[in-house]
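Reader question, answered in our methods column.
A reader sent in the components of a multi-part assembly and asked whether the whole thing could be modeled at once rather than chain by chain. We filled in our standard form and ran it. Here is what they sent:
COMPLEX SIZE: three components
ENTRIES:
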Amino acid sequence: MGARMSALSELRALKPTKAGKRARDKSDTRDNKAAAVFLAPWIVGFVAITLGPIVASFCLSFTNYNLLQNPQFTGLTNIGRMLQDSDLGSSLVVTLTYVVISVPLQLAVALAIAVLLDRGMRGLSFYRSVLYLPSLLGGSVAIAVLWRLVFGGSGLLNAFLAMFGIHGPSWIGSPNTALGTLIVLHVWTFGAPMVIFLAGLRQIPPEFYEAASTDGASKWRQFRSITLPLLSPIVFFNLVLGIIGAFQSFTQAYVISNGSGGPTNSTLFITLYLYQKAFGSLQMGYASAIAWLLLLIVAAATAINFWASKYWVFYDD
Amino acid sequence: MLRRQRISSIGKHTLLIVLSLIMLYPVLWMVASSLRPDGYIFNNPSLVLDTFAYKNYTNGWGALQQPFGTYLLNSAIVVVGAILGNLISCSLAAYAFARLRFRFKRLAFGAMLVTMMLPIQVLIIPQYVIYAQLGWINTFLPLIVPKFLATDGFFIFLMVQFIRGIPRELDEAARIDGAGHARIFLQMMLPLMKPALATAAIFTFIWTWNDFFSQLIFVTEPDKYTSSVALRQFIDPTGQSDFGGLFAMSVVTLVPVFLAFLFGQRFLLRGIATSGGK
Amino acid sequence: MKRHPGSRVRSRILTAVAAAAASVLVLSGCAVGNGGSSSDGGPQLSKKPVTISLNWWGAGARVTATQDAVKLFEKAHPNITVKLQSTDWGSYWDKLATTVAGGNAPDVMQFDQLYVASYAQRGAIADLSTYSKYLDTSSLSKNVLATGEYDGKLYAVPIGLNSMGVAVNRTILDKYGVELPDGKSWTWNDLNRVATEITEKSDGKVKGLDPFGGDTPSLTLWARQHGNQLFDQKGNVVLKPSMLAGYWQYALDQIKSGVTPSASQLAEGATGNLDQSDLATGKVAMTFLPSNLTAFQVAAPTQKLDMLPFPSAADAKKGWQYLKSSMYWTISSRSKHPAEAAELVDFLTTDPQVGKLFGAERGMPANPKFQKLIAPDLSGSDKIVMNYIKQVTSESGTPAPVTPVGGQDADTLLNQLWQNVQFGKTTPHDAAVQYITQLKKEIAAAK
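And here is the structure of the entire assembly that came back:
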């Protein structure tokens, strides 16, 4: 995770400066041959598995293609269809709701717990491990299946509520709460960002806090004025990557709704809808168009994040 | 002052213990339910076991067309292939990005970073078509071969960061001794990279073992299903369910992840928290 | 020397990208699985060892029956090995679509009526008349065979027949003293009466029934009772919106009056398992079933289940009943061993041993010889189903037309909109109009 974090800062740094362009030296190419050898697998992979497919899927977006017959060029029909597709509209609403709620919520919980876990606290590594474990399990089919059984009509949650005389509904069967169970699942995996925040917190010199308390600042004030600003780059990168990841969420929605995205499309993530169109209805052209729509949305969200970062992210470099 | 601290410390610990319990409860309930006979699983929130219904494990093992071990083996094959592939190809690429100077380095590095953020859905359809043309559908090749082609940018980046922490003086010393890049890489760099390699191996293990989407799409024959896809088969509206067996096999599929966590914690926690730095 | 990091470098990169994309496009531009298909002259049985694959959906008893039947086939044909694959209904069709497209479809595939026309039109399943040398379908009646035809040619051999009816839990009804109407038919009012009684007498512990609403077979029967139908012989959608709205309104009224589980319980149950189903667990006393009673009986061994016909309106048009093919065997058009595949299908549909093994589990056998064969030995739920089918047969009119090309999502779409109606997101009338419009669009697009 931390690797991804500085990946983004590297990306920022890659923007070539004018001086950089001029300063390109002959010595910058002296390892060309060696590089070709070391990078050969990566080059093949990049072209065949990433670049080629991305361009191909762009072109397929303008066709009708059912895999059994050759693709037929249909121009902008798919785009017109997307504009009228109410299921696609539902899936966009569902996906956006999921991303907008679950990612900040998960990060907030991760940050709160990280702050709670003082440095040098007894049992710190125990708590850290225990709270981190769910994030390793969270992506698995087993946990998604478990979630169905926890939030089902006679599941674990309702069994608990029954002890207090509350008769709970089927949480995964009600359109109003089905998405909520997926959000809860995402928040359940707060352990990974929590570990990153812990590492970041550790880098804040304790002298800052000491000076602040001597000045009479409350814990909350210290958090707002010291912790948050200094952690903001880490929060930012977790936010960006969390959002990118959340948009691609598939397994949990697929298992919990048994592939239907229901009830009444309330768990129809755009990835699930895409899967239904591509591998269920064999409408590969339309599915490619939807995939590109997803890509553009993710790119736009990332760009907005970067743009907004200058208002709240504080770099000390 | 001390008393206030002690109270707040007790409060903190209580809160954390309660939170840990809540977080782990679903998993503990799953393990407990796997040892309960079918009729006693639902509407039963407790973790207390009256009996040990080991039968759930034997039933669940044989519930699908193949003994569940087949699916575990399939997952294991894919995972081992993925780990090997990642370790080899990503370390090679990382060395190039970290230590070599070559034309288009910036461009290539930027491209690699961007691929880390691409949704897989936008690639999967043409990938499927390519693999179908090659006749690779329904084999494990689409799951393993890309790993040998350094398509997991995350690990390349992880290793680049790590290599950057290794002083260049060591490289210089080796070069003075007459070593070329190959020798430097194989005999000096790789041994020094062991922690990064371990981290990459463990993350690959966990992510591949848990993977579902690509395994679902590329492997179509039930006998070749991996454990993730096979587990999903338990939820079948036209068949009989065996919830005890379902829980049991769920526990079984999570055990390797749990073991990786136990033994690899060090690498996992360090890998995600500190390999970046700013 | 000054470097111009401009056009030359950039154009080189662009050419590389273009080349990569072009090669991928060429690959994806080809229809996948477009290998050499039919050979000249009919297929011949090979003398060498051959392996073919067979897939089906349905677990439990069906698996053992199929395995045993295949073992018998392998004994009779020592050089043929059959690889078996079964999956659940949910993923069956996704998998089929991709394996067919990926060029590695199983040789023999179990099929459903919804998909026959679509797959036949795409050329994914084989015209079975080319294998008449090995596949003998003469025992089946013309009417029954017609349900497996597309464009006048036979593409799918019907395995069994069924008809949507109502499964009732006699044990629970007896326990609460609820009586079923006498005789062989009952009305929609009768159904409501029984449902209300059981709900009241059990204090809500047992609900009356799981309502219909999301499957085209029951919709077709409802429509036929009122002189309408879903498709006509030419494959057009002729269902009237008022018909569909009435169908949904009836079920919606049942839900509102509390004789059914709640909408969210129904939604969860729709994605659950057989022995967790409401009927098997005693949550409801009745449910609509396409006569696969045995599977439910096995899942609920302590309860006595019975089968009643689909209720009828008091003024229902005569001959609204009909027998539907429950499932079919098809052969992949790209099978590498079509002759052996045809032999297998022939064995499964004509060999008496298979008739005994399959019994009534896949529906009442389509082959009349099988029907006669198993009749004396049937017991329990199989016998109930047999008698039920006999009754339906005696009342049947002309069979309903098969789902046309492009209509394979008819059930999914119906269920989706039915859920919207249940949760109050749309009215039955609006949803009905939406369904008919969209179904018409999909069928038109496939032409």
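What stands out: The domain at 82-312 of chain A is CATH 1.10.3720.10 (MetI-like fold). The interface with chain C takes residues 21, 24, 47-48, 51-53, 55-56, 59-60, 65-71, 152-153, 169-170, 172-175, 257-260, 262-265, 279-282 of chain A (CB under 8 Å).
Send us your own complexes using the same form.
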